């Protein structure tokens, strides 16, 4: 049962995480956000309690 042997799978996982951390992630971080958050004032919504018919 080769799937019980963790040696090749651990190496594949380690290699994929290293490639993501060292190659892909820095390229993704350099992208600028096109939808920057704005400084809008928070709107306060007035809530009213729900009136249950059986109380």
From TrEMBL:
Localization annotation: Mitochondrion membrane
Predominant place of localization: mitochondrion
Listed GO MF terms: proton transmembrane transporter activity
A Pfam family hit: ATP-synt_8
Superkingdom per UniProt: Eukaryota
Membrane topology classification: Single-pass membrane protein
Bilayer-spanning residue ranges: 6-24
GO cellular component, as recorded: mitochondrial membrane; proton-transporting ATP synthase complex
GO process terms (BP): proton motive force-driven ATP synthesis
Family: Belongs to the ATPase protein 8 family.
Name of this protein: ATP synthase complex subunit 8
Native species: Prodotiscus insignis
Name of the gene encoding the protein in the UniProt record: ATP8
């Amino acid at each position: 049962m080769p799937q019980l042997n963790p040696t090749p799978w651990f190496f594949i996982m380690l290699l994929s995480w290293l490639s993501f951390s060292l190659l892909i992630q820095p390229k993704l971080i350099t992208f600028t956000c096109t939808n920057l958050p704005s400084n809008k004032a928070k709107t306060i919504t007035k809530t009213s309690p729900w009136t249950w018919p059986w109380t």
